[in-house]
## 1
Amino acid sequence: MAFDTEQEPGMTESVAPETRGFRLNHCMLRIKDPERALAFYSQVFGMRLLRRLDFPELEFSLYFLARLEDGKTPPEDESQRTEWTFNQEGILELTHNWGTEKQADFSYHDGNSEPQGFGHICFSVPDLDVAVRWLDDNQVPFVKRPDEGGLKDVAFVTDPDGYWIEVIEPARLSGMGRR
Amino acid sequence: MAFDTEQEPGMTESVAPETRGFRLNHCMLRIKDPERALAFYSQVFGMRLLRRLDFPELEFSLYFLARLEDGKTPPEDESQRTEWTFNQEGILELTHNWGTEKQADFSYHDGNSEPQGFGHICFSVPDLDVAVRWLDDNQVPFVKRPDEGGLKDVAFVTDPDGYWIEVIEPARLSGMGRR
């Protein structure tokens, strides 16, 4: 039998047909200030806003962001674009609970200090050195530069809410974590 | 000019060329017990393990999971597969700090109780009613069924660590959150 994927205790041997068409659509983070977050993710990571959805009765808005390369174009019609957005993979959803941007002492929990849980999102980049210069040019705060700490060639920066963003160059990590 | 994407305060008008090739590779969650988490994500959501990486000196392991449809096949060679994994989009990374699985009272924070931050991951599915039956067949705990609460046609379940997973059917949400 040809190589499939890795087997570890717990993994099913095959994929149940009941899961056909399931897609990992997004990961959601709450943000304090949408203007600040959109400025960061569009400027620094080149993300585009696929869709903003408002829920006035629940007093929140959702922002769905993605990298749009490979000529992907969302439909102009709003209903079609909403459906298209939910059919994608690997989107970043930002949730804004209205009013938090006006509370001076309001902040969200990044998941890396206690209590821990969520860790980070990660962008892979074609050239880590070039990306680090770009992040510095944009005054993005580093948690860890590629040559610091135990994990070489892995950088961590923070977004305006303090969430960690890992930045890696795949070709430089091919020997990582081998058994 | 043709429709591009949505403009909101903060969004740059265009994508900086310095971000070419950037990919949103993954979202990372810490898990207590890898066998339990892998059993859940492979059985219930049909995910495959692209790569496990071990860091003995730091006492943790990483598990990179993805849906593999559309005939995508990771390379068999381990180094190539690591690099291939980091070149994908929309992967789920699970981090296991060794030994937590043996601590009876150990658990991670889901981000939805205080202090809030990370919210959930989301799978889109072809048919929400069929997916709900599948989730029930697998005894997956619901936070919210599609007909409960303010957001109709949106389900939330929990994974074995208590992280929330949203489950949606894109075609049923096309009118959602319109201004």
## 2
Amino acid sequence: MNGMEKDHYFMGLAIEEAQKAAQKGEVPIGAIIIQGDRVIARAHNLRETTRNAVTHAELLAIQQACEALDNWRLEDTKLYVTLEPCPMCAGAILQSRIPHIVYGARDSKAGCVDSLYRLLNDERFNHQCEVTENVMADECGGLLTQFFRDLRARNKNKRKTQA
Amino acid sequence: MNGMEKDHYFMGLAIEEAQKAAQKGEVPIGAIIIQGDRVIARAHNLRETTRNAVTHAELLAIQQACEALDNWRLEDTKLYVTLEPCPMCAGAILQSRIPHIVYGARDSKAGCVDSLYRLLNDERFNHQCEVTENVMADECGGLLTQFFRDLRARNKNKRKTQA
């Protein structure tokens, strides 16, 4: 596989994770961490299921990867995530020293990699991270659009039933 | 207790947490979360012990509080932390909707509440958080200064023994 094929392959796995989230009624965001060509972590957003504010896909994947490598430094790894990370997850990427992330769709409301801030490229922090964006962005964003469309339709039906 | 006495009392508990971290060889940072006058979470930095990059005091305390309230929304709570939060922890404060934080010392290298960014007061995010800084800052900062002084001395002795 060349670089682009590899990125599509692993983003495909992250999308599978996002689909698992949707099936649980969770906002569909998925993440994968690889070292070389080996997947060392896969996770999806679980905020409603766990009732725990920090259980975003990236946070869960980073914790899995730390356990897999028995190290808080995730050297030589690459994180794939379907949506541009929020401030918490961008910060966790810096904390775990991930050298490279690949993401799908931009998040204009809370994205802190390109949209609202560029936290991963701020040289005042003790780590910077290479960023590849816009990998399968339509598929990644489409999952979110569909999820919120379905949610609105369900809520509308519920209101009708209750009326 | 008036507001300032209360802040000193709870920051004192956060300092006790930071001291527990130091005893384990961890960078001494501690955090407390209260609801009303009840402590619902207390935690200290455990990054080296757990080998998990996200186990900062604030992240651990937020997760404990979510469990205590069985909710990812930490409404009517207040977080006390000895050091200005990093981007990850500032982001976690936004994610968990904590309405008010109180911190001790500023962190000029990575602080994202006042020093490098003001993430908790950015109206583009869907939550903002009231901030009180400089509560027992000398005690909080002094713990860190002493910890790193001791660490340098131990490393120097180690090099001497090995030479």
